[in-house]
Design brief:
The protein has 263 residues and is α+β, with helices and mostly antiparallel strands. It is built from eight helices and eleven strands. It has two domains: 120 residues, Ribosomal protein L7/L12, C-terminal domain/Adaptor protein ClpS (Ribosomal Protein L30, Chain: A), CATH 3.30.1390; 138 residues, no CATH class. Helices cover 30% and strands 33% of the residues. Helix 1 packs across helix 2.
Length: 263
């Protein structure tokens, strides 16, 4: 699927909301909902990339900046560098994946830092034992209320929140991804903290300090920010990578205001 994203407006005006409404065939109220938070915001999705491009061009003609993003490619994580180990050196970041691929990134090349919260849902079946009133036992006891144990299977859903950091550089199109629960923190040396959460927070603060030229945006830390970006049709639980890709492309320097290419 390819999504059409609107972005780049400086203020919400009635004229802009009307233009988006007319181009997308939605109400002005719905157009205003897309504009909450200042963008970027997913406006539409198409299986055919050419239809996505046509819609983007239609919006462009109304004076609205757009981009078309391949949602399937973002979800597949092809080309993503998933960090397992790292070292924060004086002038560069050294990183290593779980299969020992290595890279070194000068801090001056880091463009964007996007912390985010992912929610993973788990479902498991548990055996639940309850006590229920037993008419037969009550009759045998001479009318004294009696109960019996009843067992049944019940599906229990739980959620687990995981912090991640998407790091983008000028030379790498796809992000470097740090996962709070997926990394080994021995590269911190004497600065290592008492928990994964503290270590992860420290890594983010150090990367911000060491790469002052990078754009830092934390709107993906909260679900409300994810929903505003992705819209009602895309589930944040399965589209966090897509949300990061869209946000990063809206923040990184671009040679033109409208990006209607399909990567």
């Amino acid at each position: 699927m390819h999504v059409v994203v609107i972005h780049g407006w400086k203020e919400e005006t009635p004229e802009l909301a009307q233009a988006i409404s007319s181009a997308l065939g939605i109400t002005v109220f719905e157009a205003r909902q897309l504009m909450l938070g200042g963008g970027p915001s997913v406006a539409a999705g198409f299986a055919d990339p050419q239809q996505a491009l046509a819609m983007a061009q239609k919006l462009n003609q109304s004076g609205i900046a757009t981009m078309v993003v391949d949602a399937t490619a973002a979800r597949s994580r092809v080309g993503y560098f998933i960090v397992r180990r790292f070292e924060l050196n004086e002038s560069s970041l050294r990183i290593e994946t779980g299969d020992r691929q290595q890279a070194e990134i000068p801090y001056g090349e880091i463009d964007v830092l996007l912390p985010a919260t992912g929610i993973v849902e788990y479902s498991e079946t548990k055996t639940v034992t309850e006590r229920k009133f037993s008419l037969g036992k009550t009759i045998l006891s001479g009318g004294i209320p009696m109960s019996k144990k009843v067992k049944h299977q019940e599906k229990v859903a739980t959620e687990e929140r995981r912090k991640v950091l998407y790091l983008y550089t000028g030379r790498r199109q796809q992000p470097v991804v740090f996962s709070q629960d997926g990394m080994i923190y021995d590269g911190l040396g004497a600065a290592i903290q008492l928990s994964r959460e503290l270590n992860f927070t420290y890594v983010i603060s150090e990367l911000r300090r060491l790469s002052p030229g990078a754009v830092y945006d934390d709107r993906l830390l909260k679900r409300v920010g994810q929903v505003r970006l992705l819209g009602p049709a895309l589930d944040p639980e399965t589209n966090l990578d897509l949300a990061a890709e869209i946000l990063a492309r809206s923040l990184r320097p671009s040679p033109t205001s409208n990006d209607t290419s399909v990567p």
